[in-house]
Write a structure and sequence with these properties.
Blueprint (H helix, E strand, L loop, with lengths): L8 E5 L2 H11 L3 E8 L4 E8 L3 E7 L18 E5 L2 H10 L8 E2 L6 E6 L5 E6 L1
Parallel strand pairs: 1-4, 5-8
Antiparallel strand pairs: 2-3, 3-4, 6-7, 7-8
Length: 128
């Protein structure tokens, strides 16, 4: 088997418009494509970040909630590389986005912090 790269990451939000605003306006993703799938009562938006990674943002009528936090089975979190975690946390503060305190990765010595999307999905900032 030869995997080439990660193709996309899928995220389900409880409120599609709210999640789309968060990922595009707040985090800076670009909405590349969007389609309403009537048979599933579901929106699917394709979001690009720096032209490199694609997040597929979905909505469904009644999605299940995350069973536990933060260590639920499945995807643990999505991490974003930034130049300055502390400055990025300050930007999140201006948007009223909930986040944890700045900390240092004990293995690499790099700054990092977790923050949360509108549905409480854990996202990470990791300093380059």
């Amino acid at each position: 088997m030869k995997l080439r790269r990660v193709h996309h990451i899928a995220i389900i939000g409880t409120d599609y418009e709210r999640s789309k605003d968060f990922y595009t306006r707040v985090l800076g993703f670009e909405l590349v494509d969007e389609v309403y799938r009537e048979e599933r009562e579901s929106w699917m938006g394709k979001l690009a970040l720096g032209g490199e990674y694609i997040v597929e943002l979905f909505s469904f009528p009644t999605p299940a909630v995350r069973p536990t936090w933060p260590e639920a089975t499945g995807l643990r979190h999505l991490a974003f590389e930034v130049d300055d975690v502390e400055a990025t946390l300050a930007e999140l503060d201006t948007e009223g986005i909930r986040h944890e305190e700045l900390r240092v990765d004990p293995y690499t010595g790099k700054h990092m912090a977790f923050f949360f999307d509108p549905d409480g999905l854990p996202l990470e900032l990791y300093e380059a």
